[in-house]
Amino acid sequence: MKLLIVAAKTGGHIYPAVSVAKELIKNNHKLILLGTGNFIEKNAYNELNSKLYSIPMEGFRGSSFFKKLKVTFQIFKNIFYVIKIINKEKIDAMIGFGGFITVPAGFACFFKRVPIYIHEQNAVMGSANKLLAKISRINFLGFDGINLKNSIASGNPIREEYSNNKDYQENSKEIKIYVTGGSQGAKFINEDIPKALTELPFNLKIKHQCGMNNIEIVNKFYSSHRPNIEIVEFYNNPAEQILWSDFVISRGGALSLSEISSMRRGALIVPLPTSIDNHQFKNAKSIEKIGMCVIHEQKDGQGELINKLKSILDNKIYAEWKKIENKNHHQASKIIVTNIEKDLQI
Question: Do 205 and 172 form a contact (C-beta atoms < 8 A)?
């Protein structure tokens, strides 16, 4: 079988696509990839050794009226382009991983009567997936709680290195914290978190991923009495940093939380308050439900942030988090591929 894999722009969409793609290749299926051609896509897809097509595609929600007109035009134009790809490559089925790029691809497949499957990483359906769910054969869900027909709670496909949930062995009395705002960094994580951590009377060792061009900004927020701090723009091996840590401080991206909890680490989660449909907060609530996080909303203020961190450290809640095994995502790729093969009667 030859399948069209559609994912673009962010790691939250691309890395689950890569995990599923590897499982499909293992089962001797051929792949065609569709993205927007940005660096993160090319870098992630390189190891798949599959043909990559690119189309221009921007987001729709939250855009101005004129940008929405532009996106609408892009959709119609790209539908015809994807139909050409389907015909040329003789595509048998499509798997979409969210984001607006899946809309023209999904409708092209629908018009060509090519089976469509989608995966939703977040605890709330994104706009593109809401639309495609109506024509999708199976809707795979990263988190429980979405009431949707033809759905399977598969979990979020995580990369192999995030399946390692062993404890990091180091003879140290320090409490190790990995702070990350993602590859782009996050203003609150880079400013308010350092200020809070330096207020705490604990022996801490901190690794802080700050995003591009933010090292000087972050460095000034850590007091001089914190010598055990490493500030890096981007870690190439975030799985190692999670495993090294006692707990993580993070935004509420679906894939990040799935990876952290799969490695038996808990987190102080600071959801992005402007995330569409407040999906980061709802992702965090899913992690809270299994007892692996404390949620801090930015509106609650610095004093409450310090209190929550102090509680995690005073009561050694991070040690309890390490005892919890979250296996919801470990077999996600296999579950998705097995169910697609079954549906296609392969």
Answer: yes
